[in-house]
Amino acid sequence: MEYRTLGRSGLKVSAIAMGTFTFGGVGPFGRVGNQGVPEARALVDLCIDHGVNLFDTSNMYSGGLAEEILGEVLEGRRQDVLVTSKARMKIGPGPNDEGTSRFHLIRECERSLKRLRTDYIDIYYMHEWDGTTPVEEKMAALDTLVQQGKIRYVGCSNYSGWHVMKSLMASERERRVRFVTQQIHYTVEAREAEYELLPISLDQGLGVLVWSPLAAGLLTGKHRRGQATPETSRQFAGWTEPPIRDENRLWDIIDVLVDVGAAHGVSAAQVALAWLLTRPAVSSLVVGGRNAAQFSDNIAAVSLRLRDEDLARLDAVSKPPLIYPYWHQGQFARDRFSAADWALHQGNEPAAW
User: Which is the catalytic residue, given 3, 61, 124, 159?
Assistant: First the structure.
């Protein structure tokens, strides 16, 4: 296993993290998986045996049952691993059962601690933006939880660029705890994060964790152009995340993933994950799975070294267009770009416009 420093912190995280989205199977989460304690224990054991030290969950996965299962499975070895959880999403009918208010965050953190059977959460994520709660209140609540020893690091997930910067500004102005990481959706098919989120991560020292790095299984190579959707897939079960806006482009990308994988003797999934591990600011990929074979295959991606020509082919088939103001900056500001700017502009030459 490879371990990477998380942003501007001193924390070392495994390049592959285990996601618990499939634990519990309550409500709509049952479309993805329904692993109980025995199944979850076997998968957690496998991940730990392969060096995974980061386990990701949320208070809303299966209504909290995922946290309960993870807490039970990790009992007796909690001190040896890192656990992340999240709050913000709606978890009940009450007016304060969602958001990032001081009331909601402190209450939900304490509930998560009980379900996880632990005294602290290593990384606590704001699961989604809340535009109705002042960022000062949110960051003050997180600061309180850190001072109380209930959480150790804080991060955000699914924020836009200005949401991240507004939160960081509030932290620095009020001398509060600061985000050290963001968890985002980012794949070779979905590269929108390169417009703002990756540059911000480089510029502001945020480690990036990637959720659904295989696009809910679309990039495993099991889905091919003109073939029926496998009955075991999330898409067959009606899962609509992430959105695919250009299906032909998706199949073109998968064709390259499969071809590169064949050249290396590995799966398309490993190629998709290995590509992400070459991207700037990426610290860890949160992978999920239904069985041991899927986790073993995904973990093996850490050892795959893509060649320059592999990366060039993947870039050519997937590079996002330079929207405004980036095409303008690319023509007139590139001689004064920082490393953060190059996270988007690398490989984009003026002649291509």
Answer: 61
Average pLDDT over residues 154-177: 98
Cα(148)–Cα(307) distance, rounded to whole angstroms? Answer: 47
Q: Against a cut of 0.85, is the pTM above it? A: yes
Q: Domain containing 11 — which CATH number? A: 3.20.20.100
CA–CA separation, 53 and 202 (whole Å) = 23
Beta strands 54-56 and 3-5, pairing class: unpaired
pLDDT of residue 47: 98
Q: Is the pLDDT of residue 231 over 80?
A: no
Residue count (the chain):
353
Range 149-176 average pLDDT: 98
Domain tally, the chain? 2
Q: Are residues 332 and 220 in the same domain?
A: no
- The domain of 157 spans 3-315
Model confidence at 341, pLDDT cuts 50, 70, 90, reads: very high
Task: Answer yes or no: do 266 and 326 share one domain.
Answer: no
Answer yes or no: 61 catalytic: yes
Closest Cα to residue 16, out of 305, 268, 261, 283?
Answer: 283
DSSP SS3 for 247: helix
- Say if residue 350 is in the same domain as residue 254: no
